[in-house]
Amino acid sequence: MPQQKPSWAAPPLEEMVSKVELEAVEYDVRCPDCGTKMTLRFTAKHDKFKRSLGGRPNKKTTSVWYGCPKWPDCKGSHGAHPNGKPLGIPANKETKAARIRAHAAFDYLWQDKDMPYYENRSGAYAWITRALDIEGEDAHIAKFDEQQCEQLVAAMLIEFNIDADDLV
Prior knowledge:
The chain has helices at residues 13-24, 93-111, 121-132, 146-159; strands at residues 39-47, 59-67, 77-79. It has two domains: 13-79, no CATH class; 93-167, no CATH class. Helix 2 crosses helix 3 and helix 2 packs parallel to helix 4 (146-159). Strands 1-2-3 form a three-stranded antiparallel β-sheet, with helices on one face. Helices cover 34% and strands 12% of the residues. It has 168 residues and is an alpha+beta fold.
C-alpha cells in the first residue's frame, strides 16, 4: 500500500511551478541593482517548528521569489506572494537594510508589551499614514524608499520617546 502524504505537506514543487508561472506572467519585476528583468524562482524548504509549540517538524513548504538572472555577478532578489505577485517594490541593498530597520521599529510599535499605543498591526499602519502623511495603500514598508524608512524610525523615536537601542 503506497504511503499517503500528510495533509499539511506542500504540493509537489512541479505543481507549484506551473501554477505560479501561469499567474506570474503579468509581472515585470526589474532588478534594483542592474535593471535586468528578474526571474521567478522556487525553493522547496523545510520549516522547523519547535515541538514544544506543538508544530510539526520539517514541514515542507514552497518559497517563491525573484532573482536576478545575472547571478552570481548580480545578487538582486525580491520576495513574492505564492502566486508570483511581487511583495512591494524591489530594493537595492541599502534600501533593504533601511526597510529592515523600519520594520523593526514598526513591529516594536504594535508587538512590544510595553507599548500600549497600538494593540494591532492595523492600528500601527494607521499611525504610519498620519505620521508620514501618506495614503493607506502606500503605507507599506515594502514600498518605502530609504528616506521614508528613516522618516518612520525618526518619527517613532520622537513621538514615543523611544531609545534607538530598543529598536535593534
